[in-house]
Amino acid sequence: MTTLNRPDTPDAHICGIDTVMEVIGGKWKVLILWALETQPRRRFGELRRLVPGITEKVLASHLREMEADGIVRRVAYDEVPPRVEYSLTEDGARLNDALEPLAVWGRGRPAGRRAPSPPPTV
């Protein structure tokens, strides 16, 4: 199932950022991309350990969506016990490259920094 937040029409997107957010939106997808970047092929259990706090249901759902969006490749091997590996497609690798400046920005940001609170209203 492809992630769609807007109607599938030619003028549905305002800029490229909204297209990207449809693909990577949410709490976990960027972390899954990171985990797949650090090693060419990962099994489901490895991904679950590398993304602490994610449930199996959410991981499976996100992997299906990312596969449908063309950024993750799923290969199932005909073995006993069954083995499935996930990796980045060429588009997934390009997406990770595009996200790298955001990662650099995040690593340089002081921990715990938040936007100032608005003044109280009387």
From TrEMBL:
<feature type="domain" description="HTH hxlR-type">
    <location>
        <begin position="15"/>
        <end position="114"/>
    </location>
</feature>
<protein>
    <submittedName>
        <fullName>Winged helix-turn-helix transcriptional regulator</fullName>
    </submittedName>
</protein>
<keyword id="KW-0238">DNA-binding</keyword>
<keyword id="KW-0805">Transcription regulation</keyword>
<dbReference type="InterPro" id="IPR036388">
    <property type="entry name" value="WH-like_DNA-bd_sf"/>
</dbReference>
<keyword id="KW-0804">Transcription</keyword>
<dbReference type="InterPro" id="IPR036390">
    <property type="entry name" value="WH_DNA-bd_sf"/>
</dbReference>
<dbReference type="Pfam" id="PF01638">
    <property type="entry name" value="HxlR"/>
</dbReference>
<dbReference type="InterPro" id="IPR002577">
    <property type="entry name" value="HTH_HxlR"/>
</dbReference>
